[in-house]
């Protein structure tokens, strides 16, 4: 008798990602030992919740069968009393699954961008550091289709364009470090897989705390949408994410090609050439140029780019525009000059 269907589903998702990682590192399962490059190390980021525990269990099962080394990292955000004890418990559970190396990383969460963004920034910094320290080929993250749907709705609320609707990528980070095997699986599948394997899970109280935007969306917003529109909302939003990502990638590539045709020898942008581009492409060229000039990507919003765009589409002798990072944009003689002031 085979594994429970939920367990089979999470294992298949992880197996596919591990095979992708092996392909990326030039190793084929079944190669003779003397022909193989060193076994890549894959880490799982695990909070102890159902999604990441299911992911850890699937990694522990599949990795040895493919000749991949498997380890784990849990991040202690220090935001709750006893968080260090909770992290120690997660480390123990990961070791019991057979993962090695396993470690807990304590971080200090700042306040920039709000509590959720600050915690996320601290978490990824710790995961980056762990991956570098251990020479890991990849870090697996337990985001599910439900997480993807929430991310799309949060992007929609920000009103910052198609890229914000594209959600989380299956592969992201420097060199494709982060992999999300569960983006096509729902949250309930991961929880069921844990139950079927008698894996203890921890439900983070922050996930039910109405002080957090994502928590309100999860417990109030999405259920209201499902009640009004039917149960297919989560799947439809996840599909929207993929379609939006494909479109955004195509427009980014177009903008990358277009910039060479509108930039002069001094690095200035020709307004006539910019005006001839479709708005979606032109704004991407402008955003890229602002970032190259020193504007921080995370602080550069759609309203900033719209202001710069009006120097091209609504030119009436406006003065210079100040962008984050002390970047100044001004129009001079039919050219757009973007540089730090």
From TrEMBL:
Family to which this protein belongs: Belongs to the tRNA(Ile)-lysidine synthase family.
The protein's Enzyme Commission number: 6.3.4.19
Residues covered by the tRNA(Ile)-lysidine synthase substrate-binding domain: 269-336
Name used for this protein in its record: tRNA(Ile)-lysidine synthase
Protein species of origin: Streptomyces griseomycini
Residues the record lists as binding ATP: 47-52
Lineage: Bacteria, Bacillati, Actinomycetota, Actinomycetes, Kitasatosporales
Compartment(s) of residence: Cytoplasm
Record keyword Ligase present: yes
Any one of the GO CC terms: cytoplasm
Superkingdom of source: Bacteria
PANTHER family tied to this protein: TRNA(ILE)-LYSIDINE SYNTHASE-RELATED
Pfam families: ATP_bind_3 (PF01171), TilS (PF09179)
InterPro entries membership: Rossmann-like_a/b/a_fold (IPR014729), TilS/TtcA_N (IPR011063), tRNA_Ile_lys_synt (IPR012094), tRNA_Ile_lys_synt_N (IPR012795), tRNA_Ile_lys_synt_subst-bd (IPR015262)
Major localisation: cytoplasm
Enzyme class: ligase
Keywords assigned: ATP-binding, Cytoplasm, Ligase, Nucleotide-binding, tRNA processing
Catalytic activity, reaction form: cytidine(34) in tRNA(Ile2) + L-lysine + ATP = lysidine(34) in tRNA(Ile2) + AMP + diphosphate + H(+)
Gene3D superfamilies named in the record: 1.20.59.20, HUPs (3.40.50.620)
Domain tRNA(Ile)-lysidine/2-thiocytidine synthase N-terminal: 42-220
GO molecular function: ATP binding; tRNA(Ile)-lysidine synthase activity
């Amino acid at each position: 008798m085979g594994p429970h269907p939920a367990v089979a589903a999470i294992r298949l998702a992880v197996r596919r990602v591990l095979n992708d990682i092996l392909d990326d590192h030039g190793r084929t399962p079944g190669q003779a030992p003397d022909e193989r490059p060193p076994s890549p190390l894959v880490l799982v980021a695990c909070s102890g919740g159902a999604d990441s525990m299911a992911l850890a269990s699937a990694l522990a099962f599949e990795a040895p069968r493919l000749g991949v080394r498997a380890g784990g990292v849990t991040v202690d955000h220090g935001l709750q009393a006893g968080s260090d004890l909770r992290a120690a418990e997660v480390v123990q559970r990961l070791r019991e699954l057979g993962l090695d190396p396993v470690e807990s990383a304590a971080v200090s969460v700042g306040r920039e961008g709000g509590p959720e963004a600050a915690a996320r920034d601290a978490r990824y910094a710790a995961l980056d550091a762990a991956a570098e320290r251990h020479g890991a080929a990849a870090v697996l993250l337990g985001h599910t289709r439900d997480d993807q749907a929430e991310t799309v709705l949060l992007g929609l609320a920000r009103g910052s364009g198609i890229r914000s609707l594209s959600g989380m990528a299956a592969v992201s980070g420097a060199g494709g470090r982060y992999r999300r095997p569960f983006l096509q699986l729902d949250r309930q599948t991961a929880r069921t897989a844990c139950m079927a394997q008698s894996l203890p899970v921890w439900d983070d109280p922050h996930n039910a705390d109405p002080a957090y935007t994502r928590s309100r969306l999860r417990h109030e917003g999405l259920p209201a949408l499902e009640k009004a529109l039917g149960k297919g909302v989560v799947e439809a939003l996840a599909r929207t994410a993929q379609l939006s990502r494909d479109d955004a990638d195509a427009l980014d590539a177009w903008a990358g090609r277009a910039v060479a045709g509108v930039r002069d020898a001094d690095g200035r942008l020709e307004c006539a050439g910019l005006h001839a581009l479709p708005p979606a492409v032109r704004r991407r060229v402008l955003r890229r140029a602002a970032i190259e000039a020193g504007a921080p990507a995370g602080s550069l919003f759609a309203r900033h780019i719209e202001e710069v765009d009006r120097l091209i589409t609504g030119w009436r002798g406006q003065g210079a525009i100040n962008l984050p990072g002390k970047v100044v944009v001004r129009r001079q003689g039919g050219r757009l000059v973007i540089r730090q002031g």
